[in-house]
Design a protein that fits this description.
The protein is mostly helical. Helix content is 61%, strand content 0%. It is globular and about 40 Å long. The relative contact order is 0.07.
Amino acid sequence: MTVRKKSYPLQKVTLNLRKGDFDWLRAMHGALGASEVIRELVMVHRSKVENVAAQRNVNLNIHADVIDDVLAETHAELEGSTG
């Protein structure tokens, strides 16, 4: 049985990454591909931000602090996973 990927409308953008990051993603995730991994990371991050905003009942267009909080939590999670 073949598993079909979910299809989303895509927008082509240019994304500047640190030197070597795209190649690292490609090497680590093989057939999935770096672009797919980046899309998934963005979708997960957006969901986290929107969920926190919904819990706080705030409008993201007004309250950038929600995004800052999620970024700080994500950074802390990443720092904890490398230690």
